[in-house]
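Suppose you are handed a protein chain with no further information: no name, no annotation, nothing but its sequence. What can you learn? This example shows the usual starting point.
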Amino acid sequence: MHPILAKSDRLTIYMAAWAPVAAMLAGMLVLSAGSPWAEAVVLVLPLSIVYAFLCLAAWYPCSALPLRGTSAAKALVTHLATAAVSASLWSAVAMGIARGLDRGGLFPGVEERIRGQLGLLIAAGALLYLLAVAAHYLVVAFEASREADRRALRAEIEAREAELRALRAQVDPHFLFNSLNSISSLITADAGGARAMCVQLGDFLRASLGLGMRATVTLAEELETLELYLLLERTRFGSRLEVNLEFDESSRACLVPPLVLQPLVENALKHGISTMLEGGTIHIAAHCRSGRLRLIVENPFDPKALGRRGSGMGLTNLRQRLHSLYGTAARLRADAEGDTFWVEVVLPIDTEEHSE
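A reasonable first move is to predict its three-dimensional structure. Written in structure tokens, the prediction is:
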């Protein structure tokens, strides 16, 4: 569809641009044909409206003959021919209007006065049409630029979604690998605990599967899934594992990527609690400050056991997910102070869920 006709505001602006054109045409008739101003205005007003819509037809040859890829001679001949035809039609409409005004007795002699100005009208019509061609080439270039921007944005979104799908696909195998190792270590020492852990693993995977299909979840939903994970791990650690939760009530409605806390807690268990004979307490906090949601996971660790490091896949994966979702608006920091390791995730606050 014609881009000007596609939106009413564009059509309004376009028609308003013809107001000074109509005023100049009326002045031309007053000066060259000696027409009274009332006669010139009554004649020019419908004539300008008709020609404004006739000039919209320039969109189609401009679209068919883009400046790039079309020879200058072909474009020039085509537009000059259409300008001549349009100007001829316009002059015929002018004569028809003048004849009606003359025979209706409104402005006697107007038909003869306009007949004497046909050459001037045809020249003006051709010039106006060629100006419309130039304007439409600008519109074509603008629409092409917008379409290129839209294609680039779609490609960027598709690339980001593909990256997120790949990152999500890594979460479950990584988590399953660690969980199966835990179950394997329990089989000989605590067969009942191993069976319970298998059941809890199934419950957690069912819950996480539903959340993993969504772009974002509320922090309250994330906490419900985290509780299932912690129930699973308590079977393995027993009294060695304590969890302390500290959450602002307002933070529970904030949107976060699914499974944003689970890899942080898993990291705290694997590289912190499991290295300490007496176990320890994992502190999980969420605070809303200055338009940002801060998620903090702290755990004790044995500095002497640092040689037993993993691949760091969990934190690396999460950092990449955050970058894909939020760019520089989110960050993940991790550090150790004494015998305490902490990870902080900072996200922009959002409480309105967007569908994928």
